[in-house]
Structures are given as structure tokens and as C-alpha cells.
């Protein structure tokens, strides 16, 4: 009989421990009562178990927060009585007093009695516990005890003096860190136990599946968050970084996915915030082992980030993988809430990833990430818009336009999406007509659903008409488009009188129409509204030169370069002004400075041997050169003029030999095109100072970058003209015009070469073609006058010369179209 009773007691003990680990508290209470009845010697152990069961069961339903304090004082009366019995002298003899004090501390925390809570932990001698291997249930209890002690210190510090608060912060931090380590270890051990139970269940014929344990209590979760947060509040960013690393290096366990995802995002935010500055240190893989510390990831080939760039992107890629893994693809209404929560987590990660990749120039990586995001972003305009912007940074402009059209469909009442599409058409796709239509759609949406962007809609419409006017040849069409542009810019100024961009574009439009004085007035207004705008200063410089104030224009551009020392646009204008005012020597110095500046700004992007994270990203709009003078944008859109196809083939055949071994330079091609333009500027200056040998060298350097540029062929033609090699010059200009029929400079020089070669009919028709393209160019009219004079048409020649003189008084040092498009 005694043996049977002893066996029964052992079995109850085993069942109780199993139920405690499974947190099956009703069963624990039931078994403890049985234990008390069958074996009076375990009376105080039973008291402890009943008190523990009642406490834990209550706290599962009502978390220990301030809002529940009054309810806890009523609902935990029985639990308190049983735990106090277990903590008595008899409980000490039974060996349950220490655990009872720890649970009493938790109970008093729920009561809001923080002093009694700390006293209980003091009686349990919590700080003196030795770091040794603990059972799973004890791991959780001790972890919660350290967490609660840290939270009590935080509560009490609110009413403490400044000095006492500082004194306790270190202790509080130590308690939270210990609680964090124990919590992570507890979760790992719990998952290990569950896996063993699952394996055992798989290998048996038992119809009952293993019990899935509840994992993380609100107290432990709060302690996890408080450890790094307290460091950040103290301004200890580097220590907070190490704490995040320590937590995230622990082997992941079930139930902590959301917390790890939040920590990954918080770590990325800390790195992106820039508070570490020069204090950043790579992660240290060597850590001290302890029975109270969790297992860490380890591998022989483990990647260790070397800098903030690598670590922030690595962390966010891991976060992306976690967020995408838990996204909900089903569109069923039953999963709406889960789908929304998972989508919000994922989009937060993608927004951070956008910041990190753009900062470090990893645009391709960002674009790939958004490609993956498409599978769970059905009908979600935010991710689609971000995807479109990532495609723009990757240079996939047509794909980006297609995505933006989808965003416009998803958000039919948002004018900003139409404006984005319009800007893309104007800035990158040379689709001025399509961009104008998008701008018109934006205006209509804005009128129906105002969002404060009506002024910008008029600005974009004006830009569209302005760009269209540059591409048409017929005088009547050009006049109508210019009037439409002018009307919209005037409307923009009326709607937004304090928007510098409206005044700037109104000034630019008036300048292009030859109204220099009015244009100057509006440019000065634009500068009053935003004095630091480089585009407005650029336009002011050209307007002063058009007003024959070249010295003043040079002063303005030099002052602008004090503010923008790395603006190639302004340096380009400065070189031409110096060439006009002071001869070639000063201009030559400026052009050489441009080459040095190009090396500083772009060499990192074009150096394929440099690690990607060390390359500089070009995000500054002052280097976006979209003009016919400083970019090759106009050569990419051949238009159907009356040029025979054979002439295009002839132009291409001239560089066929170099093309056989030609391959594009590494890195962004726009950067190389800028260097090509600088070489051509140098060639022009050397030609002006009678150094043909250097001209040839500069042309050769430019040819190695992009041999099919009509600008290079034009410069080669100028060199042949300098040498009076008319046949070779004619061929070069013909090639340039074959590639870009609207290149006015080549048409002008080709007409002049025809004139020198005696073919006056061809000279006249070529120059009249140039006048159709740009009727405001005085060189065209002067050359045409010379041709007509040679033909004996003196009256027409005089009229052309008079037109040249009239136009020259309003002609800037460079065309007004050389001012880059500006949207900000």
C-alpha cells in the first residue's frame, strides 16, 4: 500500500512538472490539490503550486499593467494567500520559499505595489542567484523576475531625484539585459522541447498531438524592448547597437518573429540615423559563453559587415526576407486583417530599405526587392509607386511609366501620380506630348479633388508646351505652343504667387520668346523667393549675357559657383563667358577644373574595381544636364526629316572601325557623356587659341567615350574648317546632321562650307533649314545673308543681316535651352 502511494505521488509530480512547462494552469491546480490530499508532507509544495497556478492563469487573461491594478487586487487574493503560505517558515523547510518570493514579486507588480515587489525579490536574494543551468519553467520565472525588477526601477525613477535616477540606470540596464538573455534562452529551450515532443509524437500511434506551448508574456516582451531603448535614452548609441546585435545574433525561436522583425528595423534606423558617426565598429563574433546566455548563430563562412552601409543593408535584407515569408497572398475576406498587418510590416521594411539603398547608391538592389514585393502588393498603390521610382533610378524609364499608369488607375483622385508620370516623360523619355497629357489629367483631377498642387499642374503644362515648341519646325505651330506655355506659366504665378518655380519658368519662357527685360524681372522675383536656386542663377547669367552685360554675367556665375562649387552647368557657362571676355587662357583653366571635378564626382561610379558600397551615388539635381549643349539627349531621337537613309548609314560607317573594338565604359553612361562634353569644350577652347594639335587629342578622348555623337562629328568638322579642308569638313557636318537633323550648329557650319565650296544653292537651303529649327539664332541669319549676297540677292541679304543684328541683341552666350529642366 505504501509503495502504491509513493508511486502515485511520483506520477503526480511528473504530471505537474509537465503541465507547468505547458502552462496548463487549471490542470496544475487540480493535480496540486490531489498531491496535498494524498501526501500531507507535500502540503507547502501544493500551496506554492496552487498559488502559482492561480496567479499565472489570472495574468494570462489580465496583463499586469496599470489599467488592471484595481482588478488584480480583487482577483489575485487567493493566489496571494497561497504564495504567502509557501513563503513562510514551513515553506522554507519544504524548499519552495525562494520561488514563492519570486512569484510574490510578480503579484505585487500586478498590484502596483512596487516597493513590496522589490522587497520580495530582496528576500529571494535575486541578485545573488548563480548562473547555472535551470529547468525551462525556472528560466521563465527568473527571467520575469529580473524584468519586473528593472520595470520597478523605471517606475520609481519617475519620482526620484536626478542623482538617484542616474545611479539606478546602470542597475536597471543590467536587469533588462539579464532578462533579455534568459528570455531568449528560455524560448530556445522551449522550442527544443517542442521539437522533441513532435518527433516523439510522429514516431508513435497516439491520436493526441503534442500541446503547443504559449511563449512570451507581456513582461518579457517589454523587457526585450526596454534594454536597447534605455541605452538610446541615455545617448549610448554604440552600446544600443551592440545590444541589438546581441539579441539578433541569438538563434531564432518560435514566437519571437515579430519582435525580431521590429528589432531589425530599429537597428537599421539606428544605423541610418547617423548618430554613430566615427564611433562605428564592426560586429564582434567572439562572445563569452554562459549558462544564462542564448545560443548564437555561428558559421565558418559567416559574413561580417565592414561598415554602416553593409550592415544596414544586410539587416534590412534579412528583415525583408522575414517580412515576405509571412505575407498573406490570399485575397479572401477571412484573411483581411492578417493580410493588412503583414503588408504594413513589409512596407515599413521596404521604406527603410529605400532610404538605405538610395543613400549608398544600391539602386539595382532596391529595384530587385520591389520586384519581389509585387507578389503581395495587389491593388496597393504605395508599393507600386515605390517600385516605379526604383525603376527610374535603375534607368528603366519605360517600365516605370507603365507602373505609374497602374498607380494612376489605383488612385484616380491623386494628381501627384500624374505629375510624376509627366516629369518622367519630360525628363527621361523625351515624350513631351505624352507628358503634357499627363499634366492636363493632373490639372483636371486637381480641379475636382484639390490637394494644393494646381500651381504645379500649370507649371508642368507650361513645361510640356515649351518642350513641344522646341521640337516643331512650322512657325505657326511654334507660336501657338509658346503662347500656351506662356499662359500656363502666368496661371501658375497667379495660383501660387510665392512659388519660385512658377516665376522661374515664366522668366525662361519670356527669354525664349525674346522678351529679355520682362524675363529679367521675373527671374529676379524667383531669386527673391529662393535665392539659392542654381537653375535660376544660371538663367540670370544667360539673360545678362543676352543683354550684352557679359562682365556682370561673369560676376553672377562666379558668385553662384561660390555657393555651388561642384555645379558643372555653371562652370560650363563660365568657360564660355571667359572665352568671350578674356580669351582662351582663363577658359582653359576652368575647363581643366571641370575635368578634375568630374573625376571627384563620378570616378567612384565608373570605377568597376571599387566595392559597390564605397562608390558615391549621384543624387544631386545640379548634375542632371538635359540640354543640347551639355548632353546627348537630342541625338537619341532621330526624326524623320528629308534626309536619305544612305546618309545615316554613311555617318555610321565613318566610325565603324572604332566600333568594332568599342564597348561602353563601366558605370552610368550619363557620367561618361558629361566627360565627353568637357573634352569637346576643351577642344573648342584650344581651337580658339590656335592649338590644333591639342584639339585633335581632345576629340580623340571624346571619341573613345562615345564615337557616334554628333557633337564629336561637329567638332571634327570645325577642326577641318580651321585647316581649310572643306571636303572633310563637309563630310563631318553631313554626318552630324544625318544623326541629328535638328543640330543647328552643324546645319550652320554645313551651309557655310557649301558657301565656301561654291555650291550656293545647297548653302541657302541648309541655312533656311537651320532657321526653321531655331529662328532666334543670329549666326544662321548672318551666314544666310552672306550666301544670298554671293547670289546677288542684295535686298534679301540685307534683310537677313538686319535680322541677324536684331536677334543678336537678344542672344545669350549659350542658348536658353541649355538651362537644365528644374522640378524642385
Automatic annotation (TrEMBL):
TPR repeat ranges per the UniProt record: 778-811
Record GO biological process: phosphatidylinositol phosphate biosynthetic process; protein localization to plasma membrane
Entries under SMART domains matching the protein: TPR
Segments forming domain Tetratricopeptide repeat protein 7 N-terminal: 1-369
GO cellular component terms given for this protein: plasma membrane
Keywords: TPR repeat
Family in the record: Belongs to the YPP1 family.
Main function: Involved in endocytosis.
Name the record gives this protein: Tetratricopeptide repeat protein 7 N-terminal domain-containing protein
Organism annotation: Aquatica leii
Amino acid at each position: 500500500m505504501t509503495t502504491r502511494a509513493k508511486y502515485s505521488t511520483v506520477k503526480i509530480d511528473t504530471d505537474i512538472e509537465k503541465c507547468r512547462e505547458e502552462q496548463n494552469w487549471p490542470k496544475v491546480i487540480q493535480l496540486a490539490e490531489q498531491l496535498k490530499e494524498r501526501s500531507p508532507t507535500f502540503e507547502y509544495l501544493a500551496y506554492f503550486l496552487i498559488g502559482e497556478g492561480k496567479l499565472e492563469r489570472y495574468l494570462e487573461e489580465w496583463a499586469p499593467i496599470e489599467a488592471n491594478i484595481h482588478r488584480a487586487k480583487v482577483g489575485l487574493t487567493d493566489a496571494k494567500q497561497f504564495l504567502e503560505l509557501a513563503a513562510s517558515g514551513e515553506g522554507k523547510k519544504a524548499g519552495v520559499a525562494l520561488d514563492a518570493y519570486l512569484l510574490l514579486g510578480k503579484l505585487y507588480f500586478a498590484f502596483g505595489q512596487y516597493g513590496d515587489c522589490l522587497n520580495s525579490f530582496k528576500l529571494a536574494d535575486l541578485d545573488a542567484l548563480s548562473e547555472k543551468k535551470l529547468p525551462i519553467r525556472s528560466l521563465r520565472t527568473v527571467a520575469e523576475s529580473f524584468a519586473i525588477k528593472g520595470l520597478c526601477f523605471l517606475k520609481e525613477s519617475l519620482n526620484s531625484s536626478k542623482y538617484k535616477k542616474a545611479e539606478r540606470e546602470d542597475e536597471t540596464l543590467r536587469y533588462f539585459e539579464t532578462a533579455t538573455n534568459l528570455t531568449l534562452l528560455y524560448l530556445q529551450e522551449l522550442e527544443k522541447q517542442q521539437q522533441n515532443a513532435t518527433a516523439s509524437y510522429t514516431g508513435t500511434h497516439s491520436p493526441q498531438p503534442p500541446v503547443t506551448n504559449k511563449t512570451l508574456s507581456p513582461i518579457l516582451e517589454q523587457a526585450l524592448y526596454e534594454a536597447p531603448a534605455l541605452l538610446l535614452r541615455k545617448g549610448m548609441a554604440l552600446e544600443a547597437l551592440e545590444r541589438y546585435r546581441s539579441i539578433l545574433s541569438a538563434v531564432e525561436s518560435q514566437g519571437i518573429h515579430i519582435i525580431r522583425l521590429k528589432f531589425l528595423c530599429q537597428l537599421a534606423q539606428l544605423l541610418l540615423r547617423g548618430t554613430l558617426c566615427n564611433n562605428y565598429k564592426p560586429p564582434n563574433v567572439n562572445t563569452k559563453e554562459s549558462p544564462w546566455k542564448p545560443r548564437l548563430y555561428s558559421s565558418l563562412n559567416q559574413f561580417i559587415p565592414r561598415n554602416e552601409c553593409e550592415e544596414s543593408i544586410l539587416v534590412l535584407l534579412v528583415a525583408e526576407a522575414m517580412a515576405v515569408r509571412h505575407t498573406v497572398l490570399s485575397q479572401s475576406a477571412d484573411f483581411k486583417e492578417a493580410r493588412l498587418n503583414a503588408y504594413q510590416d513589409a512596407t515599413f521594411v521596404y521604406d527603410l530599405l529605400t532610404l538605405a539603398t538610395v543613400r549608398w547608391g544600391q539602386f539595382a538592389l532596391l529595384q530587385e526587392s520591389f520586384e519581389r514585393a509585387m507578389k503581395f502588393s495587389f491593388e496597393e498603390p504605395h508599393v507600386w509607386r515605390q517600385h516605379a521610382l526604383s525603376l527610374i533610378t535603375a534607368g528603366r524609364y519605360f517600365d516605370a511609366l507603365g507602373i505609374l499608369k497602374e498607380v494612376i488607375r489605383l488612385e484616380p483622385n491623386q494628381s501627384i501620380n500624374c505629375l510624376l508620370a509627366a516629369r518622367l516623360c519630360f525628363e527621361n523619355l523625351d515624350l513631351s506630348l505624352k507628358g503634357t497629357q499627363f499634366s492636363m489629367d493632373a490639372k483636371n483631377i486637381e480641379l475636382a479633388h484639390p490637394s494644393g498642387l494646381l500651381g504645379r499642374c500649370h507649371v508642368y503644362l507650361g513645361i510640356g508646351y515649351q518642350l513641344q515648341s522646341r521640337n516643331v519646325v512650322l512657325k505657326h505651330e511654334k507660336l501657338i505652343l509658346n503662347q500656351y506655355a506662356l499662359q500656363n506659366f502666368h496661371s501658375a504665378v497667379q495660383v501660387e504667387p510665392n512659388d519660385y518655380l512658377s516665376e522661374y519658368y515664366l522668366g525662361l519662357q519670356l527669354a525664349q520668346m525674346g522678351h529679355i527685360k520682362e524675363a529679367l524681372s521675373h527671374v529676379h522675383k524667383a531669386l527673391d523667393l529662393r535665392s539659392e536656386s542654381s537653375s535660376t542663377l544660371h538663367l540670370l547669367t544667360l539673360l545678362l549675357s543676352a543683354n550684352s552685360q557679359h562682365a556682370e554675367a561673369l560676376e553672377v556665375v562666379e558668385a553662384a559657383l561660390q555657393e555651388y562649387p561642384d555645379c558643372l552647368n555653371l562652370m560650363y557657362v563660365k568657360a564660355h563667358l571667359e572665352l568671350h571676355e578674356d580669351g582662351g587662357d582663363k577658359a582653359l583653366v576652368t575647363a581643366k577644373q571641370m575635368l578634375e571635378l568630374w573625376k571627384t564626382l563620378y570616378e567612384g561610379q565608373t570605377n568597376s574595381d571599387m566595392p559597390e558600397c564605397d562608390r558615391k551615388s549621384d543624387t544631386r539635381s545640379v548634375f542632371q544636364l538635359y540640354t543640347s549643349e551639355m548632353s546627348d539627349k537630342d541625338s537619341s531621337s532621330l526624326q524623320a526629316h528629308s534626309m536619305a537613309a544612305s546618309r545615316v548609314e554613311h555617318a555610321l560607317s565613318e566610325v565603324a572601325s572604332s566600333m568594332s573594338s568599342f564597348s561602353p565604359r563601366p558605370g552610368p553612361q550619363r557620367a561618361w557623356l558629361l566627360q565627353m562634353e568637357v573634352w569637346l569644350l576643351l577642344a573648342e577652347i584650344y581651337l580658339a587659341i590656335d592649338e590644333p594639335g591639342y584639339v585633335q587629342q581632345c576629340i580623340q578622348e571624346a571619341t573613345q567615350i562615345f564615337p557616334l555623337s554628333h557633337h564629336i562629328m561637329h567638332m571634327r568638322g570645325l577642326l577641318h574648317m580651321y585647316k581649310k579642308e572643306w571636303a572633310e569638313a563637309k563630310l563631318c557636318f553631313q554626318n552630324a546632321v544625318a544623326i541629328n537633323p535638328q543640330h543647328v550648329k552643324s546645319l550652320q557650319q554645313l551651309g557655310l562650307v557649301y558657301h565656301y565650296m561654291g555650291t550656293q544653292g545647297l548653302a541657302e537651303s541648309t541655312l533656311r533649314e537651320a532657321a526653321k529649327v531655331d529662328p532666334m539664332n543670329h549666326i544662321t541669319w548672318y551666314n544666310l545673308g552672306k550666301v544670298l549676297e554671293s547670289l546677288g540677292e542684295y535686298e534679301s541679304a540685307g534683310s537677313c543681316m538686319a535680322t541677324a543684328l536684331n536677334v543678336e541683341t537678344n542672344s545669350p552666350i549659350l542658348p536658353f535651352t541649355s538651362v537644365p529642366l528644374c522640378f524642385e
